[in-house]
Amino acid sequence: MIAGLALALVALPYFVAPYFMHLLIQILLWGFVYTSWSIMGRFGFVSLGHGAFMGVGAYVPALLWNYAGLTPWIGIPIGIGFAVLLGLVVGYPCFRLKVVGHYFALVTLALSQVVMLSIVAARDVTGGSLGFTPKAVGHSWFALQFPEKIYFYGISLTLWFGGLAVWYWIDRGVGREALDAISEDEEAAASIGINVIREKLRVTLISAALTALGGAIYGQYMMYLNPETVSGIAVSLQIVFAAIVGGNYSAVGPTVGALLTISLNEGLRVAFGTNFIGAANTIYGILLVVFIIFMPRGIVGMVQDLLSGRHRGKIAFYSAIRRPSSADQ
Amino acid sequence: MDIYLLEAIINGVLLGGVLALLALGLNLIFGVIDVVWIAYADLVMCGMYLIYYLNAELGWPLLLACAVAIAWVVALGVLVHILIIAPILGSAPINQLLATGGLLFFLQSFATLLFGTDFRNIGVRLPILEVGGIYISSARLLAFGVAGAGAVALYFFLRRTFVGTAIRAIAQDRDIVGLMGVDQRHIYLVTSAIGGALAGLAACLLILQYDVHPFIGNTFGPLLFMICVLGGLGDMIGGFVAAFVMSQIIAIGGYYFSTELSYVFAFTFFIVLMFVRPRGVFSR
Predict the structure, then answer these.
(1) Whole-angstrom distance, CA of residue A269 vs CA of residue A277
(2) Which residues, 6 or more positions from A78, have their beta carbon under 8 angstroms from its beta carbon?
(3) Closest Cα to residue B215, out of B81, B109, B77?
(4) Best of A47, A97, A106 to mutate (most B CBs within 10 Å, chain B)
(5) Interatomic CA distance for residues B123 and B114, integer angstroms
(6) Lower CB count within 10 Å: N or C terminus of chain A?
């Protein structure tokens, strides 16, 4: 079945219109970013700072390309390096000093604001709020620019599969039990000999690196960067919400979140047109609240519950709401 | 001392007043209900839009519009609690934070739908005062005075009334308070209403100084959370002091560099201090 699905995804571009190709690429790229977030988010380390990693990942290669003519093949790893460094500088003290829960969310929120405002403040170099356009050179492997959508479809499909592979690698890896233990009780985990700081830092840095890579490819594809759309509080919240709506505890959950939010947004945009700016997000906002209240395990989580027969009557359903999961803390 | 620097410092103190008022509301809600309302700054935005609509579009007197707006934000605060927080009081705290984050999306988009993204103001501009060569906006002076009065009123409410005492007790130990015959749900509603009232009051003060637009909450919302965390979530005096520290960093940073950079300094300062004092600067 998985092979069939993979074949369908590879064959898809030969049958659909360019507009849908654009949507598919967006879904795959954002799905990759959301999956990257959930690599740490599923263990209860709720970061609102992924806008920072994405912003760094997107802006560094674009700036290096425009000002130094450096190919993104080198620029993107440099951007990822910066994002990892940022994750280390903020993550290490956080984990060392046991900054968790609300505090961790708000510290990382500050981080994403720092990156966004720095980009705006450096407007002489980055173009500030007006955005930044990488120099276009047409079809080029050196510049990683492809006007034909099929190339970016291939790239984003590869990335997305790669993201899932990393997800499974961590899920099946030796650190998995340790991370589960940490998410339930850090003190207890430390007392049985788990190196809490190292385990948390490991998933955080992997997550930051992948998010930066996603930001870089997104920038290469869109050929336009704006501090508001690749960094800051709005992007951070967008990432967290889509991952949670889709289902934070399964591999495909974040992708389902991307599929749902992007198609919803496009559908509402087409339905309401531009006469009602904000209508789409108004409905999206209501859905988010409803989702978090009634389906904290997301769509995929609920489907799994239904399939596994864990929905024995209403009592079980409500207790699932009250006590979403032990990994939810 | 440079007179312009002095002016920046004074303006920073005056800005700190409104921030301190909002920090009090957010901290009260956190201390009592154990929830971070990410959309708190957007409730202020709702209040500002109502004042704009009543005053500029319908021609109501400003004071009446302000009074109605405060009542409106109080109602919003209570609704937020009943509709969003109460159903998920038992689930992970981070879910409650995210649920109010969904509210943030909703309020900003709904405001865009109703009013568009234009910047709007009520056309009332209070005079600028000159004291010894220093220019001070009287709107800011008024805001500072009213915010201070609001903080004092809240202090006496919490100290001298039964409900106030119950609120302080619940912040200390939420399980025992129930045994003492205090209805938690009632206290939660009162706290949300007070939080709303402070946000409404801030809306009245801010509409005199700033144009309102759907995303105005994003300009001072994140700063507000940093202030609350810096002072220690739930610690009202700490939050009050932190509001003035942060507003000074922004005022002085803005004087020497640019507004954005001053915010970068403020947030960086916050991150660094979190590593020095992870439970807030004034934690014991």
Answers:
(1) 8
(2) A60, A61, A64
(3) B109
(4) A106
(5) 20
(6) N
Nearby residues of B181 by Cβ (< 8 Å), 6 or more positions away: none
Strand residue runs (E) in B157-222: none
C-beta atoms of B226 and A281 within 8 A? no
Which phi and psi angles does B129 have, rounded to 5°?
-95, 145
| CA angle at A186 for the pair A102 and A95, rounded to the nearest 5° | 60
Chain B residue with the nearest C-alpha to that of A326: B92
Which of B99, B260, B274 is opposite residue A99, by nearest beta carbon?
A: B274
User: Residue B177 corresponds to which amino acid?
Assistant: V
Q: Is A45 helix (H, G, I), strand (E, B) or coil?
A: coil
Cα separation of A307 and A250, whole Å? Answer: 14
**B 212-241 residues with CB < 8 A to A:** 214, 218, 221-222, 225-226, 229, 233
pLDDT at site A237: 86
Burial tier of A114 (Cβ tally within 10 Å: 0-12, 13-18, 19+): buried
What does the H/E/C string look like for A172-221? HCCHHHHHHHHHHCHHHHHHCCCCHHHHHHHHHHHHHHHHHHHHHHHHHH
List the single best residue of B38, B118, B249, B267 to mutate versus A (max A Cβ within 10 A).
Answer: B267
> Mean pLDDT of all residues in chain A?
85
pLDDT at A149: 85
Residue contact B113–A278, C-beta within 8 A: yes
Q: Give residue-wise pLDDT tens across range B177-208.
A: 777 778 888 889 999 999 999 999 999 999 98
Kindly give the parts of chain B with pLDDT less than 50: none
pLDDT, position B1: 64
Number of H helices, E strands in chain A: 16, 0
- CA A249, CA A101: separation in Å to the nearest integer? 18
Q: What is the pLDDT of residue B7?
A: 83
Q: What is the pLDDT of residue B283?
A: 62
pTM for the structure as a whole: 0.85
Q: For B259, which residue in chain A has the nearest alpha carbon?
A: A121
- Among positive and negative, which fits the CA dihedral A297, A302, A306, A308? negative
Low-confidence ranges of chain A (pLDDT < 50): 312-329
The single residue listed with the structure tokens 């609920």 is A302
State the residue for tokens 């009232």: B197
- Grouping H, G, I as helix, E, B as strand and the rest as coil, residue B135 is strand
Q: What is the spatial distance between Cα B231 and Cα B273, in angstroms, rounded to a whole number?
A: 11
A266 token code pair: 């496009």
User: Given an 8 Å threshold on Cβ–Cβ distance, is B92 in contact with A105?
Assistant: no
* Alpha carbon of A22: minimum distance to chain B alpha carbons (Å): 24
Q: How many CA atoms lie within 13 A of A136 on its CB side?
A: 10
